[in-house]
Amino acid sequence: MNTSRIFLQRVAPNMAKVGKKAFSTECAPAQKLKAVFEEYRRQNFDDEIPSRFRKHMIKAIEEPDHQTFQVDNLNRILDNIGRKDAHLSNDELSALLREAGVPSHERSLSISKMMELM
Predict the structure, then answer these.
(1) Domain range holding 61?
(2) Which has the higher per-residue pLDDT, 87 or 106?
(3) Which of 2, 85, 96, 118 is most buried, with most CB under 10 Å away?
């Protein structure tokens, strides 16, 4: 099964449920991640359109049979793209979860919310 089809089956249906609210500009951790991911995209995926980059990133981070992403793995992703300097603290991760409307004890974001960070 190709990745576009998987994306449409797993992620696209949930994107409509989430609504149109993106992370606010006041959410510093979200803005920090967006900036890091955008810089990485420009350096490594410059020939690709932004949506293709997001699909590549989601494919690399998603867990089989899950439509959520553990926020505690964000620092691992930052390590993998060479940005240890951009690690998020526990307080920043909690702020990210609050902004997404997720109880902090769940520690996970939907794949569609992750896409908003990229």
Answers:
(1) 3-12+31-116
(2) 87
(3) 96
